[in-house]
Amino acid sequence: MSYLFRKTSLAVIIAGGVSPVLAADLDIPMVIEEPAIVQPYAEVREFGGWYIRGDVDYHKSKIRGTEYFTYGAEPCPDDCGDPDAWTGVGGTKSFDTAALKSSFSLGAGVGYQANRYFRTDLTLDYWFKSKFRGGTSDEGGYSCGGGDGPCESVDRSKMSALLLLANAYVDLGTWNGITPYVGAGIGGAHVKWGDLINDIGGYEQRHKGAKSWRFAYALMAGASYCLTDRTVLDAGYRFSRIEGGRMFEKNGAGPGFDKGFNTHEVRAGLRYSFGGSANGCYEPQTVAYEPPAPIYTK
Fold first, then answer.
1. Residue 172's domain spans which residues?
2. Based on the domain organization, do 36 and 152 belong to the same domain?
3. Cα distance between residue 161 and residue 274, in whole Å
4. Which of 9, 122, 125, 279 could form a disulfide with 107 if both were Cys (CB 3.0 to 4.6 A apart)?
């Protein structure tokens, strides 16, 4: 009996020691899963950099005045009538009337978008020929060709120009793909006048047109609209001022000078960005936050 008891006790002791070891070996780790948290964030995308542009405009230039030199009495041509009738007052005279017709221009440029609110570009615009029409009258009351009235003329010419400007713009923010802006430019204009036809009582006299570089500046305001992520439609208004210079050369009277132009322009064109999305032409994308991998613990 005592022998059986000793064997039974030994078996119980051995079983008690082995059970914890087996339990440890069979222990299964618990998985703690983090809940998925939806947390939106704005996608970061590059924008700006270099861009090119092309523009077309319709403009109206107001000439600020014209004047020319006279040189006193001069002999009249054979077909002018009374040789004593054609005289000059001497000094400087202004045109009684002077006006330029409206015209169009084409332009191109290259620029750089520094950040969301500031950009610069260099533009070159060609102004197609604008017709000029003016008139003069003899203040001394002299008649032409034996007529009763004072000597009057009708003057015709054409003016074209190249306008080169370095510009800076401030973009004021973007709403629904529309970005308003203001800007200013400074540079020069190469103004070319055609020959001036001076018609006095049916007698035409031609004065060779002049050309010269002049100082110019501009102020502008407008807005751009996103067509694609890199292409925008740009439309706006520009006021440009070109300083005065020589208009025509001497031929009897002259030379003549214009006092410059104030020009109002309605412009439209396209800009294409190479460095990334054009300014304001993308909406930040909202994406769900991705949870980390499950954490295993014992």
1. 49-273
2. no
3. 30
4. 125
Rounded Cα–Cα distance for residues 56 and 34 (Å): 60
Quick check: is 280 in a domain? no
**21, 135: one domain:** no
The C-alpha atoms of residue 267 and residue 219 are separated, in whole angstroms, by 13
Instruction: Tell me which residue of 137, 266, 259 sits closest to 198, measured CA to CA.
Output: 137
Query: Residue 278 domain-assigned?
Result: no
DSSP designation for 7: H
CATH of the domain at 151: 2.40.160.20
Residues 83, 127, single domain; the answer is yes
Distance CA 156, CA 136 (A): 12
Residues 85 and 220 in one domain: yes
Please indicate, yes or no, whether residues 211 and 161 belong to a single structural domain of this protein: yes
- Count other Cβ atoms within 10 Å, centred on residue 56: 14
Task: Determine if the peptide bond prior to 255 is cis (ω within 30°).
Answer: yes
HEC-encoded secondary structure of 15-75: HHHHHHHHHHHCCCCEEECCCCCCCCCECCCCECEEEEEEEEEEEEEEECCEEEEECCCCC
State the 10-residue block means of pLDDT for the chain, 298 residues long.
58 54 52 55 63 97 89 49 46 87 97 93 97 80 54 90 98 92 98 92 87 97 94 97 94 87 97 86 60 61
Residues pairing with 54 in the sheet: 108, 270
Amino acid, single-letter form, for residue 288: A
DSSP per-residue string spanning 142-153: --STT-SS--EE
Q: How far apart are CA 193 and CA 290, in angstroms?
A: 69
Q: Say if residue 111 is in the same domain as residue 28.
A: no
Distance CA 238, CA 50 (A): 23
Six token digits for residue 229: 């992520």
pLDDT at 248: 92
149 shares a domain with 88: yes
